[in-house]
Design goal:
The structure is a single chain. This protein is of the alpha+beta class. The protein has 2 helices and 7 strands, in the order H-E-E-E-H-E-E-E-E. The chain has one domain: Thrombin, subunit H (Beta Barrel), CATH 2.40.10.270. Strands 2-1-5-6-7-4-3 form a 7-stranded antiparallel sheet, with no helix packed on it. The N and C termini lie far apart (39 Å).
Length: 123
């Protein structure tokens, strides 16, 4: 097991501890209908709960650099093996929909320790 795999496992254990649970954080993917282009049909909303995630106000450094607004949030969640992150997707925090604005997970290359997103309210 590499160092980053060990760190990922440790982060998953820490964030999944029920003592730290802040609320319900879900990863939301909206899949368009599969019909013809002029009438594709209804979209399908697929939600996956991300246990142990935490949300807080965005850091000033991201606002200063123009990557975020002061009303944005930073969401840190454990890696979920069944999800491939897409910037077109959303995060629901206690039932409120937020758009993923930036993926600031670290490290940027290789095995991610946690997922960390800047999210903005609205859909």
């Amino acid at each position: 097991m590499t160092f980053y795999q060990e760190m990922q496992s440790l982060a998953n254990d820490l964030l999944s501890d029920p003592d730290f649970k802040q609320g319900v954080i879900e990863y939301v993917r909206i899949v368009p209908g599969s019909g013809p282009i002029d009438n594709p049909g209804p979209s399908t909303i697929m939600k996956t709960e991300l246990p142990g995630g935490v949300a807080k106000g965005v850091s000033f450094k991201y606002v200063k650099d123009g990557l975020a607004l002061s009303t944005d949030l930073t969401v840190t969640v454990p890696i979920h093996p069944d999800i491939t992150v897409d910037m077109r997707d959303f995060i629901d925090i206690d039932g409120t929909r937020f758009k993923i604005v930036q993926d600031i997970s670290s490290p940027a290359a290789g095995t991610r320790v946690v997922w960390k997103f800047i999210v903005r309210k609205g859909s």
